[in-house]
Design brief:
Shape: globular
Number of strands: 11
Radius of gyration: 18 Å
Strand content: 15-25%
Number of helices: 9
Structural class: alpha/beta
Length: about 260
């Protein structure tokens, strides 16, 4: 029998006491590596699996560390009382946790063995056989649907969306809970028709009741500079509150329970 505590993978951050990306107070483990290259990504240091150097506050910072599942669980255990009081737990984010499937499965297995609720934040751009392996150990899947048009999806993320949409249908049938999330990006997917298309697709998925609209922000801009990369959306402004409320109304009109933020 495999000792999952000894499985080693690569992360770039562990964030404790988060109130996002799942219910209650959570510990978020950010894994290195992603299949997509979203132009608005607020964690560009997550995209490459390799360990990198990033300039932060005028100083060099190493981004990425190799760590065992056992070491992660010891960090997670520190906050067990907060999880118990708030219905919180552990969320795997990134990057994309499906880029490191063995590591992800091992973390989730050990979380469940220790009584922690689990969530993953994912694009679901992977073979479904990979997703199928980890679903038994995931309480909540937070899945991005960024656009229904594959060509536009590829232009802004470097990947088409057919696999993502097909996986959404399978995940909906087999996950304990699937929540659809949409990063609302001006110039990419922020029209009423585009959000309506995504909401109608989400509403058609088996058992899906909730959809989160995540307004664009440019908080990751300095990270691109620190990595020596161009931030292509520098001129893009966050969507206005009134526009977000209008998009939320469209989501709610499909029968979904929509919310702004996640």
């Amino acid at each position: 029998m495999e000792n999952y505590s000894d499985v080693r993978g690569r992360i770039f951050n562990i964030q404790r006491f988060s109130v996002h990306d799942g219910t209650g107070i959570r510990t978020i483990v950010f894994l290195k590596g992603c299949f997509l290259r979203c132009k608005w990504c607020c964690n560009p240091e997550s995209q490459e699996y390799k360990i990198q150097t990033m300039i932060t506050g005028g100083k060099e910072k190493t981004v990425g560390q190799d760590i065992t599942v056992g070491e992660i669980i010891e960090i997670v255990k520190r906050d067990r009382p907060y999880y118990n009081r708030s219905n919180g737990g552990v969320t795997l984010s990134g990057g994309e946790c499906l880029c490191q499937p063995r590591f992800t499965e091992a973390i989730l297995r050990q979380c469940k063995a220790n009584g922690f609720t689990t969530a993953i934040e994912t694009t679901a751009f992977a073979d479904y056989s990979v997703i199928e392996r980890i679903l038994p150990f995931v309480d909540t899947v937070l899945m991005d649907i960024k656009h229904m048009n594959s060509e536009k999806h590829k232009r802004f993320t470097a990947q088409p969306n057919e696999k993502i949409l097909e996986n959404a249908k399978l995940i909906a049938k087999n996950a304990k809970c699937l929540i659809i999330r949409v990063p609302v990006i001006p110039g990419f997917n922020d029209t009423e028709d585009e959000i309506k298309d995504i909401a109608e697709f989400a509403a058609s998925l088996y058992g899906v009741k909730r959809m989160h609209l995540l307004p664009y922000h440019n908080y990751g801009f300095d990270k691109y500079i620190g990595l020596g990369r161009e931030y292509e959306l520098e001129a893009v402004k966050p969507p206005a509150d009134e526009h977000m409320k209008k998009l939320l109304e469209i989501v709610n009109n499909t029968g979904l329970d929509g919310q702004i933020g996640g």
